[in-house]
Amino acid sequence: MKPPPFSYHDPATITEAVELLATLDNAKLLAGGQSLMAMLNMRYAQPDHVIDLNRVEGLSYIRATGDGLEIGAMTRQRDVEFSNDVRRLCPLLNEAMPLVGHRQTRNRGTFGGSLAHFDSSAEIPTVCAGLDAVLRVAGPRGEREIAFKDFPAGYLSTSMELDEVLVSVRLPAWGAGHGFGFEEFARRHGDFAIVSAAALLEAGTDGRITRASLLWAGSVPHRCALPKPRQRSWANRVRWKPSPPRRRWPAESTPMKTSMRRRPTANTWRWCCPGGPLRRRGHGSRGIRGAR
Amino acid sequence: MSEKRRVSLAVNGTAYEETIETRLTLADFLRHQLGLTGTHLGCEHGVCGACTVLVDGYSVRSCLMLAVQAGGSDITTVEGIAPSKDELHPLQEAFRDNHGLQCGFCTPGMLTTLVEFLRDNPSPTERDVREAISGNLCRCTGYQGIVDAALDAAQRLKGQDRTAGPDGGESP
């Protein structure tokens, strides 16, 4: 249970980091370390070089832009959790952050680290999927942007190239007063989610839902887009208080009881309806509660 | 042999300049190199919370951090939370009075986590406390004594703040 020997590098700039990553063999980037350090201790990961991003300047910030938020990849999860800009512009993210690990891991864990590690039960990628985040990565061929829909490549894998570093994430904000909800089922607070569900809804002046984003994550990493006509009929049927969807979810392949997945999902969808009576801040979607 | 670095940092108010193997975790550095064995190691992969220490005032799992990363930081371990050699921190007193520990293995992590938590949230509810220590495993007490101790400590710290005046509170 000790990390294997490796060479340690702590570059001061992103250019240096990219250069090291491009030239060193079997190198691994170290962000907050809340996943990689455990993997090193257990020797699941045995890199020859560890490139520590903690001393790289200019990667830790939360900035309100014209149309949303920009978050630096090395911003600590704690800073995102307590940011007023996040609360104001991306309330869904604010709601999800207390569910990311524990107080001690959020103090150290980073926003970008969670995205780059890409655990299917992690909250930050789920929120980024809902908000159609745009990720900026730097590599030896320069910088490029990846839309979130193109980001996942599989379990713990992303479409970033091996020599690329995640630099920042843009989160386009939804309209003022939009509905949101994040619910999670875990055995204890802070544990890996068995299932989590998130929703964002926007309504027009007539109360009809004009835009919706529904997600679930955990055991079933799944992105599902309804075909257009269906979306319309669903929006027409659903007004202020939609009943929980009765359809069975796709991807029923896991042996877990359906109800375990269905309950948090249905609850989240119900709570987040714009103007719905059940949307409350800090409703206590905090693990223990989900375990009823 | 793995590479080494010269690192300077402060632990419990004492400045150290040490040569550290780069792959050494902060927890092992504290225990083996500095002899501060109050920090306990349970799982060594970030689940049990026993190794929690304060890095620049924030609770961190010391098994998930390299010692070289702590260069320039100010570390507080469980040995450093009491105000003096003969005096306990109000939180430690509350643990003793409320049966907040039994075997004591999880206690260093509980204490360091709660020192930070009570600083951020001086009037917590029981639920807040349970959430704050959700990352610390205790196999003896069933947590009830620990939760009682934390709530009791919050009261004691508030009392202390009142007697000490507005500037006499815990510094971060």
Describe what you observe in this structure:
The complex is a heterodimer of chains A (292) and B (172). Chain A is of the alpha+beta class. Chain A has three domains: 7-52, Uridine Diphospho-n-acetylenolpyruvylglucosamine Reductase, domain 2, CATH 3.30.43.10; 62-172, 2-Layer Sandwich (Uridine Diphospho-n-acetylenolpyruvylglucosamine Reductase, domain 3), CATH 3.30.465.10; 179-246 and 253-291, no CATH class. Chain A is built from ten helices and 13 strands. In chain A, the strands form four sheets. A five-stranded antiparallel sheet of chain A has the order 4-5-10-6-7. The two termini of chain A are 36 Å apart. Residues 226-230, 233-258 and 273-292 of chain A have low confidence and may be disordered. A five-stranded mixed sheet of chain B has the order 2-1-5-3-4, covered by helices on one side. The longest helix of chain B has 21 residues, at 144-164. Chain B folds into two domains: 4-80, Beta-grasp domain (Ubiquitin-like (UB roll), Roll); 90-163, [2Fe-2S]-binding domain (DNA polymerase, domain 1, Orthogonal Bundle), CATH 1.10.150. Chain B is of the alpha+beta class and 172 residues long. Chain B has helices at 26-33, 90-97, 107-120, 126-132, 144-164; strands at residues 4-11, 14-21, 52-55, 58-61, 74-76. The radius of gyration of chain B is 16 Å and the shape is globular. Chain A binds chain B through residues 1-8, 10, 30, 33-34, 37-38, 40-42, 50, 52, 54, 78, 98, 101-105, 107-108, 188-190, 284, 286-288, and chain B through 1-3, 5, 22-23, 25, 28, 44-46, 49, 52, 55, 58-61, 63-66, 68-69, 113, 116-117, 127, 130-132, 134-135.
CATH superfamily of the largest domain in chain B: Beta-grasp domain
Order of helices and strands of chain A: EHEHEEEHHHHHHEEEEEEEEHH
Mean pLDDT value of chain A: 80
Q: Supply Rg of chain A.
A: 20 Å
Could you tell me the CATH topology label of the largest domain in chain A: Uridine Diphospho-n-acetylenolpyruvylglucosamine Reductase, domain 3
Q: In total, how many domains does the architecture of chain B comprise?
A: 2
